[in-house]
Amino acid sequence: MLDVRGIKKVYESRDRTVEAVRDLTFTLQAGELACLVGPSGCGKTTLLKIMSGLLDPTSGEVLLEGKRVQGPPPGMAVVFQEYGRSLFPWMTVRENVELPLKQKKLPATRRSELVEESLAAVGLAEAHGAYPWQLSGGMQQRVAIARAVAYEPHVLLMDEPFAAVDAQTRADLEDLIRDLWHKFQVTTLFVTHDIDEAVYLGQRVLILSNSPTVIRDDLAIDLPDQRDQLTTRSSPRFAELRARVYEQIHRVKPAVDKESVAPAGVG
Ligand SMILES: Nc1ncnc2c1ncn2[C@@H]1O[C@H](COP(=O)(O)OP(=O)(O)OP(=O)(O)O)[C@@H](O)[C@H]1O
Ligand SMILES: [Mg+2]
Question: How is the chain split into domains, by residue range?
Fold first, then answer.
């Protein structure tokens, strides 16, 4: 379904060169829900931008259903880390959620249905007439999630989407993601800092190393498919898996500088 092959990204500017990711290769099967964890600055956002066709890799390629990604592919939705900048301030919540559906050329009645359903799913049924700047950070983030869900994507990429929400909402949204995934079998890559969240959500957890960034581990999460916040998180197997991920992340914690910064033209 989604093939990431030998992705390397080096950001070059006049006075510095940053190797954000060195060599990433993995495949997501259709309908899979995978989480990606890694230390801050290891290139998670960079990878997602490349996968969604917003940024060109220095080398390597991303294939979606066998076709090389060269611009934002139809059928893919992305929820960005910087949600504040991803909503249009001059449009209401409803209009923001509806916009991609218009681009998809869906008829008005279907658009309305999808907007209503997805806003209800993220607990914002009442907020459709509000403007993004009238909402809290967590609510704005839920609007961004509703917009992605309403689009009915085949592939959903999410970049730390719950960073700005409170613990209770976060738990609810985690369950929402699992429900949506069950219902639609969307191929999902979920990026998070949070080890527990990765283990709770994923069928699989990909662990990135610190820079130079490569995949350190690719762990199958063999927890029962029916998960709930209390029983799953308190099971012995959950504890084992989270310890395993923690160990890997811990091993890759930076000793000195987190960025691999070299003078331009070197390295
Ligand atoms: N546009 C850019 N120009 C130059 N360097 C960049 C640019 N974007 C990111 N970087 C650098 O690339 C590296 C990876 O950044 P990226 O944002 O992908 O990391 P991340 O894993 O998403 O971090 P976080 O967990 O904090 O969100 C960092 O060293 C960062 O400084
Ligand atoms: Mg990031």
Answer: 1-69+155-161+187-243, 76-152
